[in-house]
Amino acid sequence: MAHADLVITGTVLTVDEARPTAEALAVTDGRIVAVGNRSDVNELIGPDTRTIDLGSGCVMPGFVEAHGHPLMEAVALSDRFVDIRPVTIGRADAVVDAIRGEVTRRGAEGAYFNGWDPLLQTGLPEPTLAWLDETAPEGPLVIIHNSGHKAFFNSHAARINGLTRDTPDPKGSSYGRDAGGELDGTAVEIGAVFSLLGDAIKPDDYPAMLRAECARLNRAGLTMCSEMAFDPAYGPLVEQLRDDLTVRLRTYEMSSARMSTDATPGQGDDILRQVGIKIWVDGSPYVGNIDLSFPYLDTAATRTIGVTPGSCGCANYTREQLTEIVHAYFPKGWQMACHVQGDAGVDTILDVYEDVLRAHPRDDHRLRLEHVGAIRPDQLQRAAELGVTCSIFVDQIHYWGDVVVDGLFGPERGSRWMPAGSAVATGMRISLHNDPPVTPEEPLRNISVAVTRVAPSGRVLGPEECLTVEQAIRAQTLDPAWQMFADDVVGSLEVGKYADMVVLSADPRRFRPRRSPTSRSGRRSWRAGRSIGSDARAGGCAGPRTRRGAAHAGALPRHHHP
């Protein structure tokens, strides 16, 4: 029998229902060849086999980000942009100082920022066109809202991007205008926001940005990530960089005005593959433009973001437009992933999904709903019956939980925000996500938030919506891989699958509610049996003991605690 390249012993969390835990696993040529007891892998150890004993740590499947934006985050967190997200800068005055400092440094070159959030950075100035022009009189200035669903731009930015009062609104997006019809320096939704970034970076700078992004994902324990706003114009460049990718990418192309794509479903390989089409049904709760059946509250928070009293938000498309888009792609074999936060928007897109499934039945379609903050129990049941799956942005509770309840929707609706428990109760397979860079990629914290639902104040939002630790782990590994048609190769530690793994310094099943150490656990990521990155914030992965081979192939040590 051939010897393995790698053998790991200790606590193995497989996320395989047939065998949830094991004592050892073996890897050959990047694939798992054995999972079981120590005795099961003894004969696979040879003189050149690398062996790792985990001590008090554990190994589990590499985390999967079901709703990410790595190709965009590579730019947003590069040196060309200034990161002003609330996770980076908490105070409004510090945000303004950062903006003025970068404008001074860049001058006519232009200054770009990501992360403006007046709900968490209270006291920010109103970003009127006059303020934007006064702040940056010599060059373009673009400030993207933390949600990514809105941006503010000065007159210089409008000019260099060819925007005038006569510029038509992109489909599903809009430019703000004053009473006279002139641009007012606001862009709402993705088509309008992206139109401001044409001159932000040079193509020659992008490879280094993408490599840095991959390293960032690996440090979080991620080995697979979706790109949920894929621009096919990036395709040739990303393909050139595929050998540098240390995460597996699954892309969802943005639906275009022409409602067609040059790609074919499943195009690509296990490293880089296009699997679906993305639509934004509505916007962000923190901008005020999600499609609700009930009104936003009238509070200081909603007035800060410009919500008209009594407003139920809005949709980006009519039902007829959504029907046209979905029917253009789905019959050709594409999976659809629809961003939708408001419950009225959920009703609309479920109607559209039901219609297209009736007209074009498909047994294993895995149609997706993204975020679903205000989705109702009856809608979750309907979705499950249609075979629709949800990816849930539960990390919003960690950052905006108090704002959702006190500032936007009230306790009855706010406490049920991101109802992961109700989703799982229907039998639906769900995923958890961070939507980075909206919140930092942190799957371990996601697991903790899904289990505890603790808001910044310490209150628990809807304890009935809490997941078990095992459910949350599955929603960050196997089930997001399933959502992206990759569960046959990753997502669990099973024989035949790639050895995409994360080694943790602590077992995530052992955390205490409301005081989880998981978000600070050291980790090391592996893709196809090769170490690709580590995070040493909590002692890194110094716990596991590594050695090469053994004097006797059958002598596999018991747990060693360094």
TrEMBL record:
<feature type="compositionally biased region" description="Basic residues">
    <location>
        <begin position="511"/>
        <end position="527"/>
    </location>
</feature>
<dbReference type="InterPro" id="IPR033932">
    <property type="entry name" value="YtcJ-like"/>
</dbReference>
<dbReference type="InterPro" id="IPR032466">
    <property type="entry name" value="Metal_Hydrolase"/>
</dbReference>
<dbReference type="InterPro" id="IPR011059">
    <property type="entry name" value="Metal-dep_hydrolase_composite"/>
</dbReference>
<dbReference type="GO" id="GO:0016810">
    <property type="term" value="F:hydrolase activity, acting on carbon-nitrogen (but not peptide) bonds"/>
</dbReference>
<dbReference type="Pfam" id="PF07969">
    <property type="entry name" value="Amidohydro_3"/>
</dbReference>
<feature type="region of interest" description="Disordered">
    <location>
        <begin position="511"/>
        <end position="562"/>
    </location>
</feature>
<protein>
    <recommendedName>
        <fullName>Amidohydrolase 3 domain-containing protein</fullName>
    </recommendedName>
</protein>
<feature type="domain" description="Amidohydrolase 3">
    <location>
        <begin position="50"/>
        <end position="530"/>
    </location>
</feature>
<dbReference type="InterPro" id="IPR013108">
    <property type="entry name" value="Amidohydro_3"/>
</dbReference>
